[in-house]
TrEMBL record:
Belongs to the thiolase-like superfamily. Thiolase family. Pfam families: Thiolase_C (PF02803), Thiolase_N (PF00108). It is an enzyme of class 2 (transferase). The lineage of its organism: Bacteria, Pseudomonadati, Myxococcota, Polyangia, Polyangiales. CDD domains: thiolase. Its EC number is 2.3.1.9. PANTHER family: ACETYL-COA C-ACYLTRANSFERASE, BLR7806 PROTEIN. This is Acetyl-CoA C-acetyltransferase. Residues 5-236 form the Thiolase N-terminal domain. Keywords: Acyltransferase, Transferase. The keyword Acyltransferase applies. GO terms for molecular function: acetyl-CoA C-acetyltransferase activity. The active site is at C92 (acyl-thioester intermediate), H367 (proton acceptor), C397 (proton acceptor).
Amino acid sequence: MGTSYIIDAARTPRGRGKLGKGALTSVHPQELFAQVLRALPQRVGFDPREVEDVMAGIVSQVGEQGANLARNAVLAAGWPDEIPGVSLNRFCASGLQAVNFGAMAVGSGAMDLVVAGGVESMSRVPMGSDGGGQDGGNTQLRKRVFQVPQGISADLIATLQGFTREEIDGVALRSQKNAARAIEEKRFARSLIPVTDPATGAALLAKDEFPRPNTTAEGLAALEPAFVALGSAPAGPNGETLDQIALAAYPHAKEIRHVHTAGNSSGIVDGAAAVVLASERYVKEKGVKPRARILAMASVGTEPLLMLTGPAPASLKALRAAGMDARDIDLWEINEAFAGVVLQTTRALGIDPDRVNVNGGSIALGHPLGATGAMLLGTALDELERRNAQTALVTLCIGGGQGIATILERV
């Protein structure tokens, strides 16, 4: 396989994902992604007619986010009719999976120029809007494995790992502080595409809207656990609660300690992101200067009830493919779906916490499901350049028990 180059990466700011309250809630998700597409040729200097495919991750593919959003965003951006688009769903990793598929296309020589990323308008199309839940309501599947909601899994992981509430809140506080510093120092400025009203052109949002820079340890400690009531809800065929279903698979836990709250879990936001990927042939023929290349990509399946432990084995798989180990990575972006996921991954791989999520993560900035993976890649690339560092690894946990990882290296 040949080299997959990253030419550029861009994203919208993240807007609060509450209808009528966030700055981006008036923007149709097709238009949100289209604004990133429209900005990329001006930033990079490529002709949209050269793009051979547009790949977009979207998790809730229903209503405004159905009907092949990627193709409709191509049309909304005013790109040529000849440019196709495909929408895909690998839950929280959808945006990074789109990038990986694009990298496979240009690295194999099947295509020369691809734009890949994702979008999620969680205010207009709330999480769970597709009605599928975790398993599509398949009662036969539930006889084999009963997948509990992710919040229950996150608390089960924290219980099994012995994480304290203070440790969990510590991840959240660090995320808020790092994000506040990054915003103050304009570390996100290179990648940000300000969003405007598609109808009037009026400015809507130019910086991330979700962070709470005044967060304190005391404020986080005062928040009630978010998943106690959910855990006690009857869900099994014989009236078993979700906590009981989880404990039946992990009886040595004895009881689930609910430690995740609204303050140490990822935020609900709107946003879009895209990455421009090129083949070696395209780079040479066009004289384009790439920003980075992708060294390795990996995806794995993991135990589906525990569900959120995929980042560690996915990262190890990618590291093996690149002939590297964890110590060779300068910066880590571990998606902060829940604070316990970051702690579990960091512990499993022996990572220096000072290399992890140095500009904050989804706890502070928010997690626009389909877009997050592409956003994290762009954030990592910008920070590599700012620090004059070389390598970064981006990884996310995934519903249903999966993990994904991508390693990039500055050129």
